[in-house]
UniProtKB/TrEMBL annotation:
One of its GO terms (molecular function) is GTP diphosphokinase activity. It is an enzyme of class 2 (transferase). It comes from the Bacteria. This is RelA/SpoT family protein. Residues 441-502 form the TGS domain.
Length: 720
């Protein structure tokens, strides 16, 4: 742990004035430099007076920075590396200079740059750590020591968790050490051409497996994208060349639809009186390659995205509102990473707009500060241990207690910094970290036509429908998942194949109930928008809201996850004061006596009954839906759905069904999912002559060899 670690509660600083925070900065041009390095001849035949470049880049981000430590660090590094050569034949000092320039352009603070200039001296020259401490202080010594130790971490055969643990130990969790390491790797990758091909490939693979994930997690987008392109060029030279050709062809075209749409957007925002910069951001090679794989045929607008930069958070939503009003939004593309930032600090609004001619442009909307963090991630945050008075971080604020509150730094980074000390062992540390990261994990599902959809983990068929069809998804009547009919509430898994069944009725209505299953903002917005413009369908008041859309639509309609219990059992539940009310047992939690239950009124006078602990209950209460008192009646016959998790073995199905039959229980339906990793899941809907038999039945099923769990489904809980 750094000796400089400072109690953040001391010396609160006022928030920097908005004007200061908003002041225009030179745009980070690493991406352009990187592309130039890839496309054209390298500029290494000319050694620039790089310390002045470093100073200039540093002053652009930190106008008041003291440059003296940089000058001294350069003098020491230059003299101690003198006589050493890079494999390319250049003086060795070009390397630490280039690494430092990369960090300076990203906005790193002076201490990091000083350490970066010295990062190879202790490893490769006579300079000692004591000497570094004497001349530059403990903090610089600590950072140089971290980079030197990190140098020795073997990225080789060890498992991912082990490699990360070693890196975190080596760096003492100091993200500044990691950012020096990333810049070091970037420069080495840029100059990899002088190495033998086998060595290039080996280094590229480690970069792909370790350094790029690290850059992603630290939010250093500018480094990550350039590293990705450099790795792509080495590991996939043919596809890389093809992508380069596509970009060259596109650049030679006469009209640029992106530029035209950008002009249209500028006009719209001018008209609305919103101050904003509208830029075109070319996609990097790997991103373009991904898009072309996904879409097959590239459109003129696929080569870049529009970037709208504004002053304040609220302006982002104002821009969004104007674009969605004046142009045609592609609602499935909308994502709000401002309200819900990604794990790696990234904040932005994402949307897409279509022109009259059908050309669609993706649009990113963010403030200047968000943009800086999006590009530079933790590097833009400065010293994570510094007291706020040092004002090294532009977006920094303090709350009333003087506690440092950085809106651009979500909990995961603080936890990352704290955990390793707290975690008793590497595995626990790693698994907690992974859980945190998993919140943002994306899954890919396949469409029958061979296309794919990227969805957040936990997404359901409802989300898939809106992702694929936009507002036309209102007409969705059901889905097949991996060939099997599935309810629209089904939570999708990575690799599932989803076929959405679309109705032909142009006046199709979405169900309000879909809101409970919509995980993505795109789906929620589309459904809510429809409901807002069709108030009659939403009925009157929170007690008469929901469901059974397109009443009377006949059966192959598994659209809702609540397969109505047969009428002989429905009356088992009685609505207080309304014995004649139509009752449905919710399929998400399949209540049976003596479960505690509660009801919600839905459209058409039907009352759905859930177990009180069902996640849907919490959600609906959160939406302001009124509960209706219900209780169990006299009937004892019930249907219930049970999921049995087992290890795969022969005759499992036969043994399970026999065990159920021996309990005197009838099987209404059964599905068996294809086994994964020797595990298999059976789902049975059974008819119990008496609800009291349920515990015995579950025990009997658990006693079947290979079965390790039997439970009533709780997939709804997983959906949120
Ligand atoms: Mn180095």
């Amino acid at each position: 742990m750094s000796a400089e670690a400072t109690n953040p509660a001391v010396s609160p600083a006022p928030a920097p004035p908005a004007a200061h925070r908003r002041k225009g900065r030179p745009r980070i041009d690493l991406r352009r430099l990187g592309r130039a390095a890839l496309l054209g001849p390298a500029t290494r035949d000319r050694l620039p007076d790089a310390i002045s470049h470093v100073a200039e880049a540093h002053r652009a981000h930190h106008p008041d920075a003291d440059l003296e430590p940089l000058r001294r660090a350069y003098v020491l590094a230059e003299s101690s590396h003198r006589g050493q050569m890079r494999k390319s034949g250049e003086p060795y000092i070009t390397h630490p200079l280039a690494v430092t320039l990369i960090l300076a352009e990203l906005g790193a603070e002076t201490t990091t740059l000083t350490a970066s200039l010295l990062h190879d001296t202790v490893e490769d020259t006579d300079v000692t750590l004591d000497q570094v401490r004497e001349q530059f202080g403990e903090e610089v010594r600590y950072l140089v020591d971290g980079v030197t130790k990190l140098e020795k971490v073997d990225y080789g055969a060890a498992a991912e968790s082990e490699t990360f643990r070693k890196m975190l130990v080596a760096t003492g969790n100091d993200v500044r050490v990691m950012s020096i390491k990333l810049a070091d790797r970037l420069h080495n990758m840029r100059t990899l051409g002088v190495m033998r091909p086998e060595k290039q490939e080996r280094i590229a693979k480690v970069t792909r497996d370790v350094l790029i994930p690290l850059a992603e997690r630290l939010g250093v987008q500018a480094l990550k994208t350039e590293l990705e392109d450099l790795v792509f060029a080495i590991l996939h030279p043919e596809e890389y060349a093809r992508t380069r050709e596509l970009i060259a062809d596109n650049a030679a075209r006469e009209s640029d639809p992106l530029a035209e749409i950008a002009e249209e957007v500028r006009g719209v925002l001018r008209e609305a009186g919103i101050q904003a910069e509208v830029h075109i951001r070319p996609r990097h090679f790997v991103s373009l390659h991904r898009v072309s794989r996904k879409r097959g045929q590239l459109r003129g607008t696929d080569f870049g995205r529009l970037l709208v930069l504004v002053g304040e958070d609220a302006d982002c939503y104002a821009v969004l509102g104007e674009l969605h009003t004046c142009l045609t939004p592609v609602v499935s593309e909308f994502k709000d990473f401002i309200a819900v930032p990604k794990f790696n600090l990234y904040q932005s609004l994402h949307t897409a707009v279509a022109r009259g001619d059908g050309q669609v442009a993706e649009v990113l909307i963010r403030t200047h500060q968000m943009h800086k963090v999006a590009e530079a991630g933790v590097v833009a945050l400065g010293n994570p241990y510094a007291a706020p008075a040092e004002d090294q971080t532009d977006g920094e604020r303090t709350d009333g207690d003087g506690e440092r509150v950085d809106p651009t730094r979500p909990g995961w980074l603080s936890r990352l910094l704290d955990w390793q000390q707290a975690a008793p062992d590497a595995d626990m540390f790693w698994s907690t970290l992974r859980e945190d990261l998993a919140q943002d994990r994306e899954i890919t599902v396949f469409r029958p036509d061979g296309g794919t959809l990227g969805l957040p983990e936990g997404a359901t068929c409802v989300d898939a429908a809106y992702a694929q069809y936009g507002e036309d998804a209102h007409a969705c009547i059901g889905a097949r998942v991996n060939g099997r009919l599935a309810t629209l509430s089904t939570v999708l898994k990575d690799g599932d194949t989803v076929q959405l069944l679309m109705g032909q009725d142009p006046a199709s209505e979405p169900s309000r109930e879909w809101l409970e299953h919509a995980h993505t903002p795109a789906a929620r917005i589309a459904i809510q928008r429809w409901l807002a413009t069709h108030p009659s369908s939403a009925a009157d008041g929170p007690d008469a809201l929901d469901t059974e859309r397109k009443d009377g639509t006949p059966a192959p309609r598994p659209a809702h996850d609540e397969p109505a219990a047969p009428s002989d059992t429905a009356n088992a539940v009685v609505v207080a004061g309304r014995p004649e009310a139509n009752v449905r047992l919710a399929g998400c939690c399949t209540p049976v006596p003596p479960d505690e239950v509660t009801g919600f009124a839905v459209r058409g006078g039907v009352v759905t009954v859930h177990r009180v602990e069902c996640a849907a209950v919490t959600r609906m209460k959160g939406l302001g839906r009124g509960e209706i008192a219900v209780h169990w009646g006299d009937t004892t016959e019930f249907r219930v759905t049970l999921v049995a998790e087992s290890f795969q073995r022969p005759h499992l199905l036969a043994d399970l069904t026999e065990a159920i039959a021996l309990e005197g229980v009838a099987i209404v339906s059964a599905t068996v999912e294809p086994p994964t990793q020797q595990r298999v899941r059976h789902t049975y809907t059974v008819q119990l002559p008496d609800a009291a038999l349920l515990p015995d039945l579950m025990r009997a099923m658990r006693n079947v060899a290979g079965v390790y769990d039997v439970a009533r489904p709780q997939h709804q809980a997983a959906a949120r």
